[in-house]
Amino acid sequence: MNRPNNFQRIRELNYLQKAVLAAALLERMLPNYTLFSQATEFGDDSVLRNALNLIWERIVLPKSKINFELLIDKVEPNVPEVTDFDMFGVYPAIDAATALLGMLHGLIAQDEAEFVDISKISQATVAKLIEYQLTSEDVIADNQAIREHPLMQYEIEVLGELIDYVENMGRISSESVKALRVKALEDGQTNIGIEIE
Fold first, then answer.
1. 3-state secondary structure the chain
2. I need a surface site. Which of 25, 49, 92, 158 has the fewest CB within 10 A?
């Protein structure tokens, strides 16, 4: 019997499990935004970092009073426009900010689909990088080439490990969430393989 794919496994998680998994994936995406922000002097990465910290707080303390609408208003002006930047880094930055906004909307609406989408956005970021690299080497970046690329294989593997971890973490507490955050970043790199300072 085939093992269900990662997205199927995510859909089978409960609401809180989907939320913590999405937040862990955001931890791997957010440094892409920070690097872009530092390189271009666009945006304020501390606004996004603060929003993600508050997302974790809400997951651990569901009764905490956090105004997510206000956070959305703060994050939105920090989303770069593709047309304003002639560099690949704008794409992972947009994906990180878009995924973060999706997470905030998901928490407001209690919409689990938003949390599932974050794993898809993360993989799409990796796919864009592979396509960019292959095209610059004059290699045709078809679906198979992208899927079999070591970076994509690694992204799928890390996602699988995080799902395993979330499935087995038991009660979601500040301790278990802290351990998950460490696990998400234990390889010291973002979802597209950039070393995290």
1. CCCCCHHHHHHCCCHHHHHHHHHHHHHHHHHHHHHHHHHHCCCCHHHHHHHHHHHHHHHHCCCCCCCHHHHHHHHHHHCCCHHHCCCCCHHHHHHHHHHHHHHHHHHHHCCHHHHHHHHHHHHHHHHHHHHHHHHHCCCCCCHHHHHHCHHHHHHHHHHHHHHHHHHHCCCCCHHHHHHHHHHHCCCCECCCCCECC
2. 49
